[in-house]
Amino acid sequence: MSAEDQGGAAADGVFAGIGVRRVVNGVGPATRLGGVALHPSVVAAMADATRHPVRMDELERSAGRELAGLLHVESAYVTSGASAALTLATAAMISGEDAARIDELPRIEGVPRDIVVLAAHRDPYDRALEAAGARLRVVGYPNTTHLGEVARALDDDAAGVLYRPGRPGDHPSLAAIASLAADRGVPVLVDGALYAPPLENLRRWMDHGAALVALSGGKHFRGPQASGILCGRSELVELVALQHQDMDEREATWIRGEGGATPLTPPRQGIGRAMKVGREQIAGLLAAVARYVAAPGADNEPGIRELERLRTLLEPGSLPVVWHETSVLGVPVLELDLASAGLDADRFVNALRDGDRPVFLEESEAWRGVLQVNPMGLIEGDAQSVADAVAAAVSASGVPDGRRS
Ligand SMILES: *Cc1c(COP(=O)(O)O)cnc(C)c1O
């Protein structure tokens, strides 16, 4: 794919016209940089989706069925992101199909609304659950949790459990937590945004008793940036439509029972109405997930080639670089070891950002003097832009080139 194929040239045009600069995204599927480039066939599906109107409830139902088939899950529902999926799942866990409760969220009182979460699993995205009116019930410690602590928290106020995979420490397994939760009749919601795909992880969480899983459309799947999936058990996933879809309906003609809606009278606009998805997002996500399932990770290849080019451009230089064959997102990453070169990471980040073509790299390891380049958001030509920006930042900081040799 050339930069033009990926929409690079068009984006320059539209955004340059309103004074917005193009940047280099070496972070990966970062929302603050608009995510990754979409494959032309995904863009084509989105354009096709705008040609004529459809009933959104029908579209959501059919798209959910398709996605459930592709992902091998019972049910799926398209949301505006994994974060929205967490909010919608929480709303469904708290209010069920009770129209009065749906209308009350998020200021609901007198019903179970605690979501149990391990201290080790806490994350800034917890806000997405609180937005639906949940109260987080934090159990255990960063490095250790007793199953008994989870059991104690699963009292009459508990509406569900949030589980985040990939956190190290001595903690009960998902299977143990889910089995306990099932005994108390509450569902376990897995925040799978970072760890699925690979789809084997999704399969394992389901096998281990997860009731709901939130997935991001804009990360591994390379779908539209504002898309996500809530998937899992049908009776729960089907509740989400009520919380999410436009309820500008008349009571007399509202179709009860469609889309899993079973209250006797319709609720009003739900808490999820502020997280609506358009038909373009749904069509683009379907196309992207189908591409992923047919050839997992294949659309990362152009970015990976660009990362290889960058490695060649940077080595050998004054800045030690380390190639890692894989990372949390399943792609290779290139590490810039600023600490070894005696460079200050914060100053370096600012220098990259303040150049003619602003460059953004992954900063999660900046605390130890390491920046990472993730290939997923790179487009043709970016390797040269990053190499130029790195050279400028190094020379601005006064380290002589070739210091290692
Ligand atoms: C990225 C991420 C989210 C949010 O995903 P969006 O699709 O951007 O809403 C939620 N949880 C975790 C752990 C994430 O990494």
- What about the largest sheet? 7 strands, mixed
> Approximately how much beta-strand content do the residues carry?
5-15%
Order of helices and strands: HEHHEHHEHEHEHEHEEHHHHEEHEEH
The number of strands is 12
Short description:
The chain is of the alpha/beta class and 405 residues long. The chain is built from 15 helices and 12 strands. The longest helix is centred in the N-terminal third of the chain and has 16 residues, at 56-71.
Structure, described:
The chain is an alpha/beta fold. Helix content is 37%, strand content 13%. It has 15 helices and twelve strands. It has a seven-stranded mixed beta sheet, sandwiched between helices. Strands 9-10-12 form a three-stranded antiparallel beta sheet, with helices on one face. Strands 1-11 form a two-stranded parallel sheet. The radius of gyration is 23 Å and the shape is globular. It starts with 7 loop residues before the first helix and ends in a 9-residue tail after the last helix. The N terminus is likely disordered. The structure holds pyridoxal-5'-phosphate. The site of pyridoxal-5'-phosphate (PLP) has 12 residues, from helix 4. Pyridoxal-5'-phosphate binds next to helix 4.
What's the structural blueprint in terms of helices and strands?
Layout: H1 8-16, E1 24-26, H2 40-49, H3 56-71, E2 75-79, H4 82-95, H5 99-104, E3 114-118, H6 127-130, E4 135-139, H7 147-153, E5 158-163, H8 174-184, E6 188-191, H9 199-207, E7 212-216, E8 228-232, H10 234-237, H11 240-244, H12 279-294, H13 301-314, E9 321-324, E10 333-337, H14 345-353, E11 359-361, E12 370-373, H15 382-396
Parallel strand pairs: 1-11, 3-4, 3-5, 5-6, 6-7
Antiparallel strand pairs: 2-8, 7-8, 9-10, 10-12
The structure holds pyridoxal-5'-phosphate (PLP).
